[in-house]
Amino acid sequence: ITKSEVWICMELMSTCLDKLLKRTRQPIPEQILGKIVVATVNALHYLKERHGVIHRDVKPSNILLDDRGNIKLCDFGISGRLVDSKAKTRSAGCAAYMAPERIEPPDPTKPDYDIRADVWSLGISLVELATGEFPYKNCKTDFEVLTKVLQDDPPQLGSEFSDELRSLVKDCLTKDCKKRPKYRRLLEHPLIKKSETEQVDIAAWFAEMTKLMEINRHS
Fold first, then answer.
1. Local confidence pLDDT in tens for the 219 residues of the chain
2. What are the φ and ψ backbone dihedral angles of 99, each rounded to 5 degrees?
3. Is 201 a catalytic residue?
4. By residue range, what is the domain housing residue 71?
5. Best CA proximity match to 124, nearest among 40, 185, 206
6. Looking at 57, 112, 114, 118, which residue is catalytic?
7. Is residue 144 part of a domain?
């Protein structure tokens, strides 16, 4: 370490979920999604409870995987401190995953929001990961996406998915932020409780996906 340089050594993860979707051209199976939800919600809950921080940029490209099956949340560049459990910066984060109350605050004189904005972002991410498609993929601009978020019904999963996963997504994508669950309530959701104890070999699944990515790269 010199007076002007600090070197931070960090582990190298294999990929992010955004790249995985694009390169495998396949949605992520429910059992794997369950483990992803558990890891992500626990990470967000830890940030809030231990450090008083809101992430503000939850999306598939910020959820990482490695070849041992570890799942981690990354990119805290626009994370912010919570003051009385509220955040105030409206512009931080990716518009495509932004919660309605961040786009158009219910009370313009108090444009603050809380961790439930990240819960919305998680819900949009889950729809994308489960179906393999971003729910607002037909929009050409961020403005179109934001308009749909405000005016349309929230995206939901179809009947081909389990009741537990559909229920979790529906809870996350509750438009009224006051009715949307915070992390403590989410951690009690049946899907998360089941996924916490379920034996899932993420490493083996990821090994298969790595092979598929290589095949697709040459096709």
1. 557 788 888 889 999 999 999 999 999 999 999 999 999 999 999 999 998 888 989 999 999 999 999 999 998 777 765 544 454 555 556 788 999 998 887 777 665 788 999 999 999 999 999 999 999 988 989 899 999 999 999 999 999 999 999 999 999 999 999 999 999 999 999 999 999 999 999 999 999 999 999 998 887
2. -75, 150
3. no
4. 15-191
5. 40
6. 57
7. yes
